[in-house]
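Hi everyone, sorry if this is the wrong subforum. Our group has a chain we'd like a structural model of before ordering constructs, and none of us has done structure prediction before. Sequence below.
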Amino acid sequence: MNAPATHRFGPEPRHVTRQVEIGGVKVGGGAPVVVQSMTNTDTADVASTTRQVADLWRAGSELVRVTVNTAEAAAAIPRIVEKLDMMGVRVPIIGDFHYNGHTLLANEPACAQALAKYRINPGNVGFGKKKDTQFAQLIEFAIRYGKPVRIGANWGSLDQALAARLMDENAQRAEPWDAGRVMREALILSALESAQRAVELGLPAERIILSAKVSGVQELVAVYRDLSARSDFALHLGLTEAGIGSKGIVASSAALGVLLQEGIGDTIRISLTPEPGASRTQEVIVAQELLQTMGLRAFTPMVTACPGCGRTTSEFFQELAKVVQEHVRGKMPEWKISHPGAENMTLAVMGCVVNGPGESRHANIGISLPGTGEAPSAPVFVDGEKTVTLRGDNIAYEFVALIDDYVETRYRAARPD
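Answer:
Right subforum, don't worry. Here is the predicted structure as tokens:
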């Protein structure tokens, strides 16, 4: 009888990439996958941009990118960085350049110095004869000021001269590729050839991050598998124009989840279109939860909660799950400093007796609320053992207090003196 096949549990080993340091944050080279985000304010509006960067940082963004598209935006960068520093918000700021970055950096040296990294799009850094010159100027600024760059090719702004060249070459093949494959190759070569040119100009490979973004899930997976196999540059993952609401979350998670499972990717951004009136920080939370649910990092205690069924006619367990999730996320900035390790805690809020006790025992702290027809009591389990039964109108308050007590007791020894 043949032995059963064995399968790897968990993500594949990370692809070996060069490590890039961005304002003290390490990307690639075995460092944890880094979460980043981008503002949507007018960068020239110093107050609004500073406020949004601070919000993104508090939500957990480890790098924040801002648009630098006008002289006013470039002039605002040093003031934004200064204000953030005064607020104690020390997050590296990345400048996103298109079309005129070479001019803006030349005219605003304080901007060039204040930014932690430059993002360059090889598809629109310049056109015709000016392309190579303007790309070289941007790389020279990065060399002069000791800054890393992300060379970010994008499906929506592909280098048309390169695409035309590859189409011509494809026509000469005995078995031509389909148009999609040619476009994917153009995107990959745009990033790789630009990176090679930057190295030739004198920028160390350890200061280069690559990305090649598309808006389709299968295309993104195919592009990054190929890009990863053909280089050892650190890679930035993201589905460009992912969409709004659940569509953007699902598409980004599907694409990035596959790549991360295969060990591909050193930093990620979830490019969500915010719902009207919604906070920009949602993209940070989704990125964190993607990494945490895959077991790659821990940011905040995760709450297991049942979806509800005919046994759970009350909405109380749903309300309690929301209260608990918001409470631990709100406390995490404090716990991260005073009680390190609390982010690894697991919690369970269950709605009836079917799976409630079992799921609660698997969590560090779990509560099994009464379902339809069950006794009006809620047993609480701590590290697998039933410790107390809650009753009455203050269950939410008492359960949150138990969580706080657990954090204080379990992680107190790890606090700095």
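For your construct planning: The first strand starts at residue 20 and ends at 22. The chain has a mean pLDDT of 94.
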